[in-house]
Amino acid sequence: MTMSDLDVARQLADAARAVILPHFRNANTTADNKLHDGFDPVTIADRAAEEAMRSVLGDLRPEDGILGEEFAPKSGTSGRTWVLDPIDGTRGFISGTPTWGVLIALSDGDGPMLGIVDQPYIGERFEGSRDHAQVVGPHGTRPLVTRRTDSLADAILFTTFPEVGTEADRAGFERVAREVKLTRYGMDCYAYALLAAGTVDLVIEAGLNAYDIQAPIAVIEAAGGIVTNWEGDPVHNGGRALAAANPQIHAAALALLKAG
């Protein structure tokens, strides 16, 4: 029997979990800096997890392409690409916070069709595809459904970095932040998972790569949300992202982002 794409994605997440967890909150785990100017950490866990996932794909989906953060892209013949971020939120990982995650997406010419956001330490796995949206974790298995908040005054907003991006990006974010009920920072990919789970309303970020956003797109859209760039267009290839729980709150936030 041919294994489903979702089962393949789950095997990728399992493989990543197995190699990452021994390094989390381990005093012997060190980080290299990928930047000459600034700090962009990478650890042995990042590299080992992507290698483990690529090995699984080599066995189960050799015809598909691979786009990952840590190693060179692999071309495929199927028209489909697995988009992998072995640890999204390495800064959080090396700080010991459980807000990082493994991001796995499967994309075709129309964008991501399937996504997983996996948090190995908590044991939560958020899954989304065109006919499937669930989280498996400490509370068991539950459907993913986004919130129905339609007013910014009642909304909860997340972003990872206080500076967001450029000064202009920060100004756009602040226009939205001034209107919402609550703004929180520093959650990496876990903020997108919470949006899909129905506990927050908006995530606004800038400077993303395709592997940062494709899995969250699939999970959030499966749960009933919407993810675009700051112009309201597809954001599959990264850049400035606006993730929202529903079209109404998306439109309200988008209008403020465009106002600048």
Textual characterization of the structure:
- With 260 residues, the chain is an alpha+beta fold.
- The protein has seven helices and 14 strands.
- It has helices spanning 5-20, 44-60, 90-95, 167-177, 190-197, 210-222, 247-258; strands at 31-33, 41-43, 65-68, 81-88, 101-108, 111-119, 124-129, 132-137, 140-143, 156-159, 182-185, 202-209, 226-229, 238-244.
- The strands form three sheets. A seven-stranded mixed β-sheet has the order 3-4-5-6-7-8-9, with helices on both faces.
- A hairpin with an 8-residue loop joins strand 13 and strand 14.
- The longest helix is centred in the first third of the chain and has 17 residues, at 44-60.
- The protein is globular.
- The mean pLDDT is 95.
Our measurement of the CA-to-CA distance between the termini, rounded to an integer number of angstroms, reads: 54 Å
Q: What average pLDDT do the residues reach?
A: 95
The poorly predicted ranges are none
Order of helical and strand elements? HEEHEEHEEEEEEHEHEHEEH
Structural class: alpha+beta
> Care to count the β-strands?
14
Helix content: 25-40%
Spatial strand arrangement across the major sheet: 3-4-5-6-7-8-9
Report Rg: 17 Å
The proportion of strand residues reads 25-35%
Dominant shape = globular
Summarize the biggest pleated sheet: 7 strands, mixed
Count of helical segments? Answer: 7
